[in-house]
Amino acid sequence: MNKFILIVTLTFGTVANAYVYVDRCANYTDKVDYSFISCINRNFNTIETEINLNSQGHVALYYCANYGDKLDFSFQSCVNENFRTIARVKNGFFSHCSNFKDKGVDYFYISCVNNNFETAANLLNRILE
Q: What is the Cα–Cα distance from 86 to 104, expressed in whole angstroms?
C-alpha cells in the first residue's frame, strides 16, 4: 500500500510541475494546409486541457474548422474567440489576428496566431511555477 501511495504522489507531483508547450504552426503551400488548421486546434486543445487540470474553474474552447483554399472568416472569428476566452479566464491580452490574403494564409496571420499561442503558454507556465 505504501508503494502505491508513493507512485501516485510522484506521478501527480510531476504533472503539476510540467510546462505547457505549444507548437509553432506553419502553412507550407499557397492554399490553406490541413496541417496548419490541425496545429491550431491541437494547441487550443493543449491549452484547454491545461487550464482545466491546473486552474480554478472550467473553460471550453471551440474546435475551429476551415473549408476550402481560403481562410474562412468564420475560422478567423473562431480562433479570435478562443483567444478572448483564454484572456478572460487567465487575465491576459492577445492580439486580434486577421488574414488579408485572398487565397492561403498571409505571414502576418501566422505570426499573430503563433505569438498569441506563445503568450498563452507563458501565462499558463507562470501559474505552474
A: 26
